[in-house]
Design brief:
Chain B: This is Exosome complex exonuclease Rrp40. Chain B: Keywords: Exosome, RNA-binding. Chain B: One of its GO terms (biological process) is nuclear polyadenylation-dependent rRNA catabolic process. The structure holds 2 protein chains of 2 kinds. By secondary structure, chain A is an alpha+beta fold. Chain A has a single domain, classed as Ribosomal Protein S5, domain 2 (2-Layer Sandwich), CATH 3.30.230.70. Chain A has 5 helices and 14 strands. In chain A, the strands form 4 sheets. In chain A, strands 1, 2, 3, 4, 5 and 6 form a 6-stranded mixed sheet that branches. The N terminus of chain A is likely disordered. Chain B is of the alpha+beta class. A 5-stranded mixed beta barrel of chain B has the order 7-8-9-11-10. Chain B has a 4-stranded mixed sheet with strand order 1-5-6-2, covered by helices on one side. The chains are: A alpha+beta, B alpha+beta. Chains A and B meet through helix 1 of A and helix 3 of B.
Chain lengths: 324, 274
């Protein structure tokens, strides 16, 4: 049995990697993960020059996200997210499986992300690239390892059967800030998802269909989101929610995973130019503000959708005529 | 002027829609092809113009051209005589290898295809620099190389003016349909009024930004618009971004001329330029 404290989001801290950089110029984009078409000299210079005057290409402020649009599909846990021109679909699904031998009380939770050629012509089907590994790692740390979804609540019968929850992330269009967008979409999906009810009777596991019993919401312990900051001009300009062009001209990025309560569950500064330590502290405050803002929006949109569903469900049941 | 005519691929262009100016040879724009049709009589093959893309037939009587105004698709396919904004990828002994669209085969631009270029005076373009060029040839069949030029081989001048390296400024991406409209709007004469092809945004921006010293714009058919406001001094960057945002919003939201004028006023006020 795991100690009760393990439920609490663990503080996972990543140290700065001082990887040798091939390019000595700090202005050069360090991020060579995806094979996106390189920016032209004029574009890079212009973006940096504009940021020096605190102007961004789309007229946003440094701490402003693009417009976030969330919508839901017919089924529970089917979320479509649109952040500016970045577009993501997340599907949450569940099935009953056998728990792992070393963790008989825990259910399973996995996040699957694949960058297919649908999202960007720079990505190839069936070939994983560095961006994919990177985003998967951040999502895994922020959502799965911070125990945002209480896996113990997924246990049905000790060591015999448990729920396996799977989040599939599909990227439809890519215009920067994949990590944050995917994080928001997965968290929304988990909160929206309803799994079928299951009971144990005489040592037998019975799973009820969604028509027989009201499906159950997942047990969300806290709502962490990642906020990615991009640094420019030797750390003088730090912005959130960079577009693809901004990401390409950035000199380094800082990812903070934080929940509504202000618990930092992930902090990373993988590569790129160094960022002042004080910046990390001030940026976590900005991140907290953003997370509260986004979580409030998610909550609002989701409640509206669930209310609509409840009304539709009741109208369906109280209908006088029925199919014979 | 006859009623607007929409053609589907394979449709013939009716002869009453062609410009009647007979002094110049008729020039074909993108989306059209000249096919010869064998007729029953020998030695008398007739020629027909057929559309290769769906779109609106547009003619320019003064320049004696006919072309198809296609829908605003995102994929650009090079056509001879198109003006494009290309990015240098690398250079070899004879050619600059350029990207016209990302993730496609490189287009070739001769090292000497610039106005007044000799072996000693040719521009030394580096990776990532931009050129405004004309599509010289597209080749035939799969794997054919697209060749670009910044000079008219017949006269040795950069015709139409402005071809060559683009220095400074900023590039904004728009749909190819929007780029085609912008080219027509900026090349048409002012006597047709402010609104050309449903586009008022350029003329409106020109009026509003005149006091700042105006701006320079180069539109590539590959969906790129280069904007430079270096005359505007301190507000150069803000003005450039304002122009880019106006063009992109007009494109994304398919605004009509009245809304375009409102948009220009709103964005210039937002950027504290008006």
């Amino acid at each position: 049995m795991r100690p009760a404290t393990a439920k609490w989001p663990k503080m996972v801290q990543k140290k700065t990697f001082d990887r040798p950089r091939r390019d000595s110029s700090p202005r050069c984009a360090i991020r060579k993960m995806s094979k996106e078409a390189p920016l032209s000299v004029a574009e890079r210079e212009f973006i940096l020059e504009a940021l020096r005057e605190n102007v961004r290409l789309d007229g946003r402020g440094a701490d402003q996200f693009r417009s976030l649009n969330l919508s839901f599909g017919d089924e529970y846990g089917h979320v479509k997210l649109q952040l500016g021109k970045t577009s993501i679909v997340v599907r949450i699904s569940s099935e009953v499986t056998k728990p792992r031998d070393d963790r008989p009380f825990d259910g399973l939770f996995n996040i699957n992300l694949e960058l297919s050629a649908m999202g960007s012509p720079a990505w190839e089907n069936g070939r994983s690239n560095e961006l994919e590994a990177y985003v998967t790692h951040v999502l895994d740390s922020v959502i799965r390892r911070s125990n945002a979804l209480d896996t113990e609540s997924l246990c049905i019968l000790k060591g015999v059967s448990c729920w396996s929850i799977r989040a599939d992330v599909h990227i439809l269009d890519y215009d920067g800030n994949l990590t944050d967008a995917a994080c928001i979409a997965i968290m929304t999906g988990l909160q929206h998802f309803r799994r079928p009810d299951a009971v144990v009777r005489d040592g037998q596991v019975i799973v009820y269909g969604v028509e027989e019993r009201v499906p159950v919401a997942l047990n969300i312990t806290h709502k962490p989101l990642s906020i990615t900051f991009n640094a420019f001009n030797e750390g003088h300009n730090i912005i959130v929610d960079a577009t693809r062009k901004e990401e390409q001209s950035s000199e380094g990025e800082l990812v903070i995973g934080i929940n509504n309560g202000g618990d930092v569950c992930f902090l990373s500064k993988f590569s790129g130019a160094p960022v002042d330590a004080m910046e990390v502290v001030t940026r976590s405050n900005v991140a907290l503000e953003k997370v509260k803002e986004i979580n409030a929006q998610v909550e609002r949109v989701m409640q509206a959708d669930l209310a609509k569903r409840a009304k539709k469900g009741m109208a369906e049941e109280s209908r006088a005529e029925n199919d014979r | 002027m006859s009623a607007p005519l929409i053609l589907l691929p394979g449709d013939e262009v009716p002869s009453d829609h062609l410009p009647s100016n007979n002094s110049n040879p008729l020039k074909l724009g993108p989306g059209l092809r000249l096919l010869s049709q064998p007729s029953s009589k020998p030695d008398a093959t007739s020629h027909v113009l057929t559309a290769t893309q769906a779109g609106l037939v547009t003619t320019d009587a003064k320049r004696n051209t006919v072309s198809i105004l296609s829908f605003p698709n995102r994929r650009y396919i090079p056509t001879v005589n198109d003006l494009v904004i290309a990015q240098i990828h690398h250079s070899s002994i004879d050619y600059f290898h350029c990207m016209v669209t990302p993730h496609t085969a490189h287009a070739l631009l001769g090292q000497l295809s610039f106005e007044g270029a000799t072996k000693k005076t040719r521009p030394m373009l580096k990776q990532g620099e931009l050129v405004y060029a004309r599509v010289l040839s597209v080749g035939v069949g799969a794997g054919a190389e697209v060749e670009l030029t910044c000079v008219n081989p017949a006269t040795g001048k950069s015709e139409p003016g402005g071809l060559g390296p683009l220095v400074g400024g900023m590039v904004f991406e728009v749909s190819t349909g929007m780029a085609a409209r912008l080219i027509r709007a900026s090349s048409s004469s002012a006597e047709q009024g402010d609104v050309i092809d449903g586009l008022a945004v350029l003329s409106e921006l020109g009026k509003k930004l005149e006091s700042l010293g105006g701006f320079e714009i180069a539109v590539g058919r590959n969906g790129k618009v280069w904007v430079d406001c270096s005359n505007a001094g301190d507000s150069a960057i803000k003005a450039t971004i304002a122009i880019g945002r106006c063009l992109q919003t007009t494109d994304d939201k398919r605004l009509n001329p009245v809304d375009q004028k409102k948009l220009v006023t709103r964005i210039l006020r937002e950027m504290k330029l008006a």
